[in-house]
Amino acid sequence: MERCFNIVLVEPEIPPNTGNIARLCAATGSVLHLVEPLGFSIDDRQLKRAGLDYWKSVELHLWQNLAQIQAAADKSVDFWYLSTKAAKSYLEATFKPGDYIVFGKETKGLPEELISSNLDTAVTIPMPGDAVRSLNLSTSAGIVLYEALRQSGRIV
Percent helix, strand, coil in the chain (nearest 5)? Predict the structure, then answer.
């Protein structure tokens, strides 16, 4: 399967979330990028358990910071920053193959400065109710990645 999208987790904290997202990447042919520091060891038993036996199918890259990924990326792709603080819905985004979909750590999300300096590519997942502050990280990754896949014609 041709690699299509890039999922970036900035300082992920919860092993099962990262494991679930690794499984999502394996299923969709997406590349997983983890930005340090991680809140766990990549040898963590819970991380491996959540990804089951799919880790061999995941292209995984470790980075010291987000700036390294941005510098290494092809200039023709976009970085989409997911945040509850963004004003624009992910449904308004125009995703294209190769784009990077960036998520922050579970407890704090992405830095506000990053969102405010990237208003055109900062997006949120609208929630009609006010019972929760945010969705689970792996749920959010699945929602946005499948919309990107739909837009690129990878799923119908």
Answer: 40, 20, 40
- The length of the chain in residues reads 156
Cα-Cα-Cα-Cα dihedral sign, residues 140, 9, 1, 152: positive
Cβ within 8 Å of residue 103, ≥6 positions away:
7, 8, 9, 10, 82, 110, 137, 140, 141
> Does the reported pTM lie above 0.85?
yes
Domain boundaries, the chain: 6-151
Distance CA 45, CA 40 (A): 10
pLDDT in tens, 25-63: 999 999 999 999 998 887 756 666 655 567 788 999 999
Under the phi-then-psi rule, with left for phi > 0, alpha for psi from -120 to 50, and beta for the rest, what region is 11? left
Distance CA 14, CA 47 (A): 8
Say if residue 2 is exposed, middle or buried (CB neighbours under 10 Å; 0-12, 13-18, 19+).
Answer: exposed
Spatial neighbors of 45 by CB under 8 A, at least 6 apart, are: none
Q: Write out the CATH class of domain 6-151.
A: alpha beta
Per the structure block, which two tokens stand in for 47? 């991380």
